[in-house]
Amino acid sequence: MELNLNVAQEKMLELMQKIGQNRYLQAIMRGMMLVLPATIMSSIATLLKVFPVASYQEFLELHNLVQFFDIPINFTNNFLAVIVTFSVSYTLAKSFDIDGFTAGLISMISFFILTPYTLGEMGPLGQAFSIPNQWLGSMGLFTGILVAIISTRIFVAITKKGLIIRMPDSVPEFISKSFSSLIPGIVILSMFTVISATITMNGLGSIHSIIYEIIQAPLTSLGSGIGSVILVSIIAQTLWFFGLHGHAITLGIVAPIWFAMDAAQLAAYSSGAATPNITGFAFFMTYTAGDLLPLAFMLAFIAKSQRFRTLGKLSFAPAIFTIGEPMAYGVPLVMNFALAIPYILLNSVTLGAAYYLTVAGVLPAVAGVATPAGMPIIVSGFMQGSWKIAAFQFISLFVRFAGWYFFFKVADRIAVAEEKTEEEQNQELENAEFATADGDSVK
């Protein structure tokens, strides 16, 4: 049977679109994007805490200031699972047109119900208790996501079925929302209390440890290898080639794994311990940053095609800030087979080189710092804790330039030929119109 490549491509694109539009993957990705201010704050505090200048570190030690940098770190990066539980639940509930705040609040309380704690002695203000932060950060991230999804789906189901307390329209909205959330809130919190009690009574430890050992640790091991990272890169760029937002689709799948790895990485880096990972979200973004900057340079300063030169001047500044859409749809890179090879594969080359140089000890591991979207290349390298990473980014620009050059010249010749043909056709049309006008005037 002859394989119809067009049909196969269409089926594959449909599948990728369905994955990219999956409600739960979108909720996870958007929920994690919502906590970006917290992760950036943690990253800034970490960089200020460990800034590698001897006189600066002596100043911090002399005035006992290090402890104050730990405050934002503890309540952002080391509190990440709690924050993500709320944000994922919030975005998921909003996708069902349900009140996101109440759903997020119930999910966050459910997370704490499942989290083990220890009781202290009875004091004048009541019995003290403490929650170990082991499960509040990166190690509890998968539990938080699962709790958010389960809790929110139950909340949505009960609300959609109308099993809520409805108040008259004359009652203020905030009071009405409080009463409408009573029944789903009691059901959800009771369910998680029973789950927590059952696990504890049977000596199974906690749901956190179970999920971490069965789900999070194996997925982290699977997703942390350079093979997985390169596969994600190739799939993402291939999807971009076909006109889909490749990063939104692929990173949405691996985001829980890579964000958890980054949180663990940043926690170790801020405490001065050995960093546990090489790859992760920060690794991927750091070593794929500036991927289209060399192409923008060629378009602006080397291209012979007038269209390419104009596009290059317009896209060069955005490319500095890692924005490549003007070239993706302007060159275009989408469905442009002349540029397909470097577009799809060059990121894999830099990722692979960075990984093996890190393994060899030439490059330090990235710190796991969350950088804002649009952070220029080289600056993002310094933010990962070392000038060596920034230097590698700079060198990688020349590697990318070499990788793009041959294919760019081919595309440029094609564009010049197209412009020449178009110009000749326009000239012929003008001559024909002139001849017609001249003939009319003679008559």
Automatic annotation (TrEMBL):
Subcellular location: Cell membrane
Any Pfam family: PTS_EIIC
InterPro entries tied to this protein: PTS_EIIC, PTS_EIIC_3, PTS_IIC_cello, PTS_Sugar-EIIC/EIIB
TM segment ranges: 31-51, 71-93, 100-119, 139-158, 179-204, 210-232, 239-261, 281-302, 314-331, 337-357, 362-383, 389-408
Location of the PTS EIIC type-3 domain: 8-407
Keywords: Cell membrane, Membrane, Sugar transport, Transmembrane, Transmembrane helix, Transport
Designated name of the protein: Permease IIC component
Organism: Vibrio mangrovi
